[in-house]
Amino acid sequence: MVQRYQSPVRVYKYPFELVMAAYEKRFPTCPQIPVFLGSEVLRESRSPDGAVHVVERSCRLRVDAPRLLRKIAGVEHVVFVQTNVLNWKERTLLIEAHNETFANRVVVNEHCSYTVHPENEDWTCFEQSASLDIRSFFGFENALEKIAMKQYTANVKRGKEVIEHYLNELISQGTSHIPRWTPAPVREEDARNQAGPRDPGSLEAHRPGSALGPSLEAVSMDGDKLDADYIERCLGHLTPMQESCLIQLRHWLQETHKGKIPKDEHILRFLRARDFHLDKAREMLCQSLSWRKQHQVDLLLQTWQPPALLEEFYAGGWHYQDIDGRPLYILRLGQMDTKGLMKAVGEEVLLRHVLSVNEEGQKRCEGSTRQLGRPISSWTCLLDLEGLNMRHLWRPGVKALLRMIEVVEDNYPETLGRLLIVRAPRVFPVLWTLISPFINENTRRKFLIYSGSNYQGPGGLVDYLDREVIPDFLGGESVCNVPEGGLVPKSLYMTEEEQEHADQLWQWSETYHSASVLRGAPHEVAMEILEGESVITWDFDILRGDVVFSLYHAKKVPRPGAREPGTRASGQLIDKGWVLGRDYSRVEAPLVCREGESIQGSHVTRWPGVYLLQWQMHSPPGSVACSLPGVDDVLTALHSPGPKCKLLYYYEVLASEDFRCLGSCLSAGSASPGVGPQHGHGWSSLTRV
Question: What positions does the domain CRAL-TRIO occupy (predicted)?
């Protein structure tokens, strides 16, 4: 597995020319970096006008590894080749380095750049990326990978300190300004000499567009990059590898989820929840983003208005901040009639309210960060259990609580900074036994439980809350406006018919549908078109795996294939006996959609009949698969273990006139290319984001 590192943008508040003078002081040796044993110049060249200076060095690095590993490898130091292209005219330094030692077993590549800050020409930006691919190393591949990454990140941190050391040294010696490069007149004789044949390894080999071209593109400045000062100020202290994970995940989101990138604080929470394991955090975040889209959570704070009954009887609310500046939420669960609330408003309304609390908590964290000038990424919850009894252990209520915990754990990780549980009664261990297995271990470590009056005095609430913030019902000085709860009158309970109707409304309000696609078992959606010219629109996200998307037309309505008892519906609608070209036809060419992609498109129909949207698992090149497998194939796929693709989709059929009107409105505003009715049969009406 290839390990990658990507640094944030590190800013030196000094001009480029002065930073370059400090950088040159690192060679041929650098006492500030003990592992750097020395270097020698292999090749050097300059452009005729002196603007571009290319230096190729051989650098020796001490192997900082256990003696046994060094003995097996048979080396005490490793050699890297570094190529520097310094362009005084453009004020850039591009650096490429690769290892020569063990090059057939281990491949290390590094790209660095020094460039002028895009908003201040007297500042200098530095970026660094690297990759490590250990192919084989005497059976010590895992050990070498850990040692190499640990040593590399330590040197990354040390690198900035070294440049700052030499900058201070230059200034103390009286060098605080170095004039910028200006072209010097080239004599005719020098020009003739420079026009002769060139060494393949000289400057010509490193002209723009050559081997260093890609690294320049990779590190060019743009508005979407993070700088180290911003991370420290708004996100908190991160190690170099944690910074790298944040930048890599953010970059992946920019490529696959354009227009809907979550905030950096939100991304960082998912990384922390998965101990900065990039692939696991990416999967968790991708699932959460799709969940937010399906349930329209991004609009929750603007659209959610809790019922009056909930505002009266739900005993929870926000109450100032804790001693660390985190927003404080108080929940008087012991005083709350959870059974009555569920019977009066339903489980879905309660869940929606809990989600709104979490959304509000994230918003308050952002406000605290701005107010205090330091990162606040989580909040504190004060949970008062006085009054908790067996009524709270009502089975449907506990089941609903477990569901809410699961939803919050999956979609709001690392948002709870501390949970202060006070006045825990004897029945609490029973409730804790039921719910604790569903709470993440990292979250459980943040729980502080006080029974009786143990929360009073030293070691209690005063260690986490200012005295003037402790609510009056806990003996504090602050008047707390959180509702007191109480029993919900049975006259306010919903009837079974009302409850069923409310649940249906919540189900119908879901805009997006989820589906699983197995090998040999595609997912299909049929739409009957009565008009000759209508518009089918679709929008779907690929959550897992790669799929092939197709659109078909049939003259008659397909019937789902027969299923044996005990098997589940596969979503396949096309008859096994149908023949492509006779019973149905393909009206759009198949499109391969990769994991993480979002696809939007539309199709203007030409004939009435039945149109089918189909998603099937993408087969690797060289494999032959029937585009429409039969029932036997589907049953085999359902009963046999194997890979599974998941997607979230939405579709709609519009009258052609309505779609033209919509397209006109969009084009009059800020419509994107490809929006609007598209006649014909191309994918011109499809966009990837």
Answer: 306-482
